[in-house]
Write a structure and sequence with these properties.
The structure holds 2 protein chains of 2 kinds.
Chain A: E1 4-13, E2 16-26, E3 31-35, H1 42-49, E4 57-62, E5 65-66, H2 72-77, E6 80-82, H3 95-101, H4 104-107, H5 111-115, H6 119-138, H7 154-167, E7 172-176, H8 184-199, E8 203-207, H9 211-217, E9 220-225, E10 228-233, H10 235-240, H11 242-249
Parallel strand pairs in A: 3-8, 3-9, 6-7, 7-8
Antiparallel strand pairs in A: 1-2, 1-4, 4-5, 9-10
Chain B: H1 2-32, H2 39-55, H3 60-83, H4 91-112, E1 129-131, E2 134-136, H5 138-160, H6 162-172, H7 174-179, H8 184-210, H9 217-231, H10 236-257, H11 262-276
Helix pairs in contact in B: 1-5, 1-6, 1-8, 1-9, 1-10, 2-3, 2-4, 2-8, 2-9, 3-8, 5-6, 5-8, 6-8, 9-10, 9-11, 10-11
The chains are: A alpha/beta, B mainly alpha.
Chain lengths: 259, 290
């Protein structure tokens, strides 16, 4: 069964079709990238899939269930998790607490057991803590565990957000420009991390500007321009596609169109 | 000395009520950034509903329980009917909505109950206890004890339980909380129920001393707000300390200056805090990352 299926998704902002009739599929363990020039509608598409925006048209189907426009917390329960280009971190908490928050759904137990500090409750918090520390080690933040998240660099926060998303053990993970603001070494680390996560069976849906990274790690690429899907396929096919080249470099009559 | 002690006792008693109101402000503020000016009406409802049910023949503990549960339900209704539909509106608009809710509750109480001043018997009799030359009502100990028990309960809830931490996470970043699977709508419902219930409890405990009527809410709201501001908006420890301090300042002003200035004391404190110490006693300086 297809894990995530986006069917004819569209949204209009004040008469402007920001995204129009976009469809594609994501299979388990696959890395699918959405690329396109600035303003092509990539983040808007992500926001519709992850329940931040209500789509004006089309459906989002996750594991056979229609989840169109469903709230992010309900999507999280169904195995969809995401990160943001502009970060959504608990700034006032420590790095470790942020990572632990990703275990929220797995840590759940009766409130009374928590209040009485029963062994079962202590075990659940210990497991969440250990799991969180392991994830922080995986993204290279274990030494910053006790620092306040608000004091970390942008690149570190990007990795923290990925760690928190992974804590939910999602079936599909949406990453919005995970390498933005990261240096070459950090980009390569994220690159490895994404490949590793995909290899473990989690599907990755990626928006990324670093073309080298996209071409290297994607199984499948969806190209958007002016809110429409103009091409789709394996990296090698897409990079040879004349429509894609035109969208990125501009054609003669459209050379001064928005970039 | 005994005079000072007497002012201290009355200050701590009324301060405990303000502390409970301030805790109510804190919970809703933390969950939603909204300063809920209907908070004082919850205190009024706690007292009025208890009086009404008790006058109708119910035993006092049962009447008090009904008042607390009914007020908590009203708090949830205010959230569902007035706050939630306006989600996404600027915080100032939401605050004005709570002022509207406050006016509505006051009017409704006037219609459903009446315009008289009411009271019901103190829980442990009226015989004052003598301590160091001053006297204190047994009911004062109920009020002070109530504030401390509620504070301890909230502290356990927020530090130990996953649900309590979910509330804190929601206050820190609502979208991030949703992303990790926290149902932020439920967090809001819970916060309003808790705040309203705590407000009602304050009304139940204080009414034998302060008396109640349909229009007592606004005074409690303003004093509680002053307490929450003084302690640092959003900080439970600050709310507790701030509430008690406002009560003390009020009692000492009434005792040593003039009871005419008693009401002004809280407002002078609000102004001083806003001018010189906007983050309050326990508040942290806000650091927003852009």
């Amino acid at each position: 069964m297809t894990l995530l299926s986006v069917e004819g998704l569209g949204i209009t902002f004040g008469g402007l079709k920001a995204v129009n009739d976009v469809s594609f599929k994501v299979e388990p363990g696959e890395i699918v990238s959405v690329i396109g020039p600035n303003g092509a509608g990539k983040t808007t598409l992500f926001n519709m899939i992850s329940g931040i925006y209500q789509p004006g048209a089309g459906r989002v189907v996750l594991k056979g269930e229609d989840v169109t426009g469903m709230r992010p917390d309900l999507l999280a329960r169904r195995g969809m998790s995401r990160t943001f280009q502009n970060l959504q971190i608990f700034q006032a908490m420590t790095v470790l607490e942020n990572a632990i928050s990703g275990f929220h759904l797995r840590e759940k137990g009766p409130v009374l057991a928590d209040l009485l500090n029963l062994p079962a409750s202590r075990r659940r918090s210990r497991e969440a803590r250990e799991g969180a520390l392991a994830l922080l080690a995986r993204v290279g933040l274990d030494r910053a565990a006790d620092r306040e998240a608000g004091n970390l660099s942008y690149g570190s926060l990007k990795r923290l957000e990925i760690a928190r998303a992974l804590a939910m053990n999602p079936a599909v993970l949406l990453l919005d420009e995970p390498a933005a603001g990261c240096n070459a070494v950090e980009t390569e680390e994220i690159d490895h991390l994404i490949a590793e996560v995909a290899a473990s069976g989690t599907a990755i849906l990626l928006v990324e500007h670093d073309m080298k990274m996209v071409m290297r790690i994607s199984n499948h690429i969806v190209v958007l321009d002016h809110g429409e899907k103009i091409a789709e396929g394996a990296p090698a096919e897409v990079s040879r596609n004349p429509a894609v080249i035109a969208a990125y470099l501009g054609t003669e009559e459209g050379a001064d169109a928005d970039g | 000395m005994s005079e000072f002690l007497q002012f201290l006792f009355s200050g701590v008693t009324v301060g405990a009520v303000y502390a409970l109101v301030a805790l109510g402000f804190t919970i809703i503020y933390n969950a939603s950034d909204v300063v809920n000016f209907a908070q004082g009406e919850f205190v009024m409802l706690g007292g009025m509903i208890t009086w009404f049910a008790h006058a109708a023949g119910l035993p006092l503990p049962l009447a008090a329980l009904i008042a607390i549960v009914a007020t908590a339900a009203l708090g949830v209704a205010i959230n569902k009917l007035a706050i939630e539909p306006a989600r996404g509106a600027p915080v100032v608009s939401l605050i004005i909505i709570t002022i509207g809710a406050s006016v509505f509750l006051q009017g409704a109480a006037q219609l459903v109950f009446d315009k008289q001043i009411h009271s019901f018997p103190a829980f442990s009799g009226d015989r004052p206890l003598r301590i160091g030359g001053a006297t204190i009502q047994p009911q004062s100990l109920w009020v002070i004890g109530g504030a401390l028990v509620v504070f301890a309960g909230l502290w356990l809830f927020f530090t130990r339980t996953l649900l309590g931490r979910a509330v804190l996470a929601t206050s820190n970043n609502r979208l991030a909380a949703q992303l990790v699977g926290i149902n932020t709508n439920f967090v809001m419902t819970l916060s309003f129920a808790l705040s309203a219930g705590i407000g009602a409890l304050a009304g139940v405990l204080a009414t034998p001393i302060t008396l109640t009527a349909y229009n007592v809410g606004i005074g409690f709201a303003l004093k509680g707000f002053a307490g929450a501001m003084l302690g640092g908006m959003g900080n439970p420890k600050g709310a507790l300390a701030g509430g008690f301090l406002i009560g003390l300042i009020e009692a000492l002003t009434a005792g040593y200056l003039s009871s005419t200035y008693k009401e002004a004391a809280a407002f002078v404190v609000i102004l001083l805090v806003l001018f010189f110490m906007p983050q309050g006693l326990f508040g942290r300086k806000s650091t927003e990352r852009v």
